[in-house]
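Exercise 7. Predict the structure of BACK domain-containing protein from Tetrabaena socialis.
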Amino acid sequence: MPGLYRLAIVELFENGDDAGCDVVFCLEKDVPEERKWKRPRVSERSKDDSAATVGGDCLGLPLPAHLLILRLASPRFRAQIARWNVNTSDRAAQEAAASSSCSAPCRPQLRVPLGSEAEAPFARAAIGYAYTGRVAADSVREVLEVRWQASYLEINGCMAACDELLVGMLAAGSSSDVGLVGQAVAAAPVDRPARPVEFMLCGALLPDPAADPSFGPVLVAAKEALVRHFGDTLVVLNTPSLRQQLLQLPAIVVEALLGSDSFGTDSEDTVLLLLATWMKANHSQTDAATRERLCRLVRLVQLGRPYLTAVLPALAADHETREGSSHCAWFPISVTEASFIAALATASAGMEKQQFLSHGRRVYDMQSAWYSTARRPQCLSGAGRGCEWAVSQQELLQKLGELKPGITKRLHGSFPNGSPCARGFEFKTFLEVAYAAAAARLDLWCCMPAAYDMPGSRLGSGGKAAAVVGLDLCLTVHHWSGSVRQDAFKGEFEAAVPELLARPSGHLSGVGWASALPLGQPQPAAGVGGEALVGWAAYVREGRLTGTLTLLPPP
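Solution. The predicted structure, encoded as tokens:
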């Protein structure tokens, strides 16, 4: 029997049968122009339903309603209904104001002042919850809109139901399947941002946590979902779809991501690179205060030596010597503080570091995240992350066909998602083959990322900055024996032994192995077709020569 009563109540929503009044949504009078696009907080919104407050314009059709349900569902409506019996003249004024622009009412009317026509469907949905016990919303934004109106209309239980629905949405729509570098799959409809991103974009709809503590768990869930969606710095930078999403984020979402203690990385250098990547695309959308806020989230004392000695000083010099509006002057740090941070980060433990800390407390804001020693989660573990590189048979044939005595040809090993990033730098692979050579050379090149190549920057293509980079990685070339793949060559690097020279784009250099790929026979000059590939037979399969670059966790 209780179930039948519940079903009967559900069927009463938007049904005129036995309705005791109509809820009429009207435009609130004297709404400031800026409030038509910037939503006011509920505490700022008028809850006065007098004719002096409500305008004459009705928003949509009246909603048939039932007095008992409204009384039980909302203290606001209970008080409004009670005033009918106390002040009949005010009730008459309400009906006259409503009937001036709406169809003549057959039932008493409860007027609800709204800030704009766009609010009406969500106010209607909030009242619908009192009948159905269900939040009628399909997206994160719609749920937040309904929650907003539920707070305004004081619909019992609706805000909590919205919060529960939001947490569920964020948990269901925020996972990334992270495997190899550049192979994270972020689930999100094509025509809508991922749910955690959509949530962060709805800043004007989010309640003040101090005024509405019950919303705290939703905020926590949203930040956790945002981190789960983007994974970590390596996944973002090495996955084209996520990288594109990053570039489209507003500053407030980037701030939430970089400010999270759960956002993993291989090193703080890559965090700075991620910010530089976003800043290069969005500098014109930021002001000095926004750039300061974002840059203050990078934990500079945790940068590696290459960034401390090459990248950070160049950014500081760009900031001091270029105009504040210049794109290359985006990182707001002085040369003296950049030098101090480098000295502090590399100081030996004990008296030397304590002296630097004592001095810094008197001169700099040591509470800033620039000086934080709290480590972000290390995103590399176990066997590390590998990404395949390849040289097409077509390119190989073309280069081999150009060989002559005394000539060496270089072939670029391409990665499916572009050059991978790690430790704040980009990496490229190359093969070199010479006429009559019995083996091909394999090189790994380290490059200053293009994100720093801004007009006028010391890190740009004309700059002279240089850094010697060390990182833990393994570079292999594949060899085929029938259908069985093996590693014909494996080269390893250790972070403890820096040997890769990184310079701005256009000034590439690398290290490698002269005899990494022994050829089946010496490479002839200007070979044609199959003749040119005879020595490469063990390496080429299905039209490609392949290998793997694996980023390894710190020892």
